Amino acid sequence: VQLVESGGGSVQPEESLRVSCAFSGHHLASFTMGWFRQRPGKERELVANIDYSGEYTEYADAVKGRFTISRDNSKNTVDLQMNSLKPEDTAVYFCNADGLRGGLGLYWGQGTQVTVSS
Questions:
Q1: Which residues fall within 8 angstroms of residue 73, CB to CB, at 6 or more apart?
Q2: What does the DSSP 8-state code read for residue 54?
Q3: Residues whose CB is less than 8 angstroms from the CB of residue 95 and which lie 6 or more positions away in sequence, other chains included
Q4: CA 34 to chain CA centroid, nearest Å
Q5: Does 103 have pLDDT greater than 90?
């Protein structure tokens, strides 16, 4: 399994950004997908995840109402739409594929930097 993130960059507070994860090497529908982030000086934390069908999602309290995770199993992509960005959202954002329940392993992308600053 390979995960490649894209779409990071620098924005000003209250702006929006969309990061994408390209999945390859297996069937995306076999994995719960997630976005994590690691802020400077902090441990990696869950931002959002989405089940195999896209029906169920979970968000960290800090991003509820601002971020939306989505997936397209036919295109092998998982996106994170980030609105009303705050300086504290500055982090490296990582895509995660969790296939542990099916014995398929756990995988990470290389990360993409998101910087929110005025």
A1: 27, 28, 29, 52, 54
A2: S
A3: 3, 4, 5, 21, 23, 33, 34, 35, 78, 108, 109
A4: 5
A5: no
Q: Which residue bears the tokens 């005025």?
A: 118
Q: Which residues of 64-103 are buried (b: 16+ CB within 10 A; e: fewer)?
A: eeebbbbbebeebbbbbebeebeeebbbbbbbbbbbeeee
Single out the residue of 70, 69, 17 nearest to residue 48, CA to CA: 69
Q: What is the DSSP letter of 63?
A: T
C-alpha span between 113 and 118 (Å, rounded): 16
Residue 96 has pLDDT above 90, yes or no: yes
pLDDT tens string 42-77:
999 999 999 999 999 999 999 999 999 999 999 999
